[in-house]
Amino acid sequence: MSDKFFFKGNKTPKPKHSSYGYNTKRAAKLGTQSAPLLLSVQNEARKVEVEALLVEHQLIATITVDAHVDENIADLLGMINKPKTVSLDAKPNRNDPCTCGSGLKYKKCCGA
Known about the structure:
This protein has 2 helices and 2 strands; from the N terminus they run βαβα. The protein has helices at 44-56, 74-80; strands at residues 37-41, 61-65. A two-stranded parallel sheet has the order 1-2.
């Protein structure tokens, strides 16, 4: 007969990892010492402007100056202009006092 009718549990135990739940394959955050941004600009004046942005936002990057290559600072702009999470104020319940300050319940004042 087969073991599947009598055996309860895994036939092969799960291997124990040294991390025990920690993500050891995590990628390093861009703009840090271990993973600097790779940027390219076309002239020295633009390099100074980009360096000022890096200092302002506390990022680290490797900047190459080459007039024959198109400017590539998309990674920097993506780090600077992160989208903000939109949060809305909760609408008051019907029996809560009205937010306009009239002293009435919300359902009798602004909720109608």
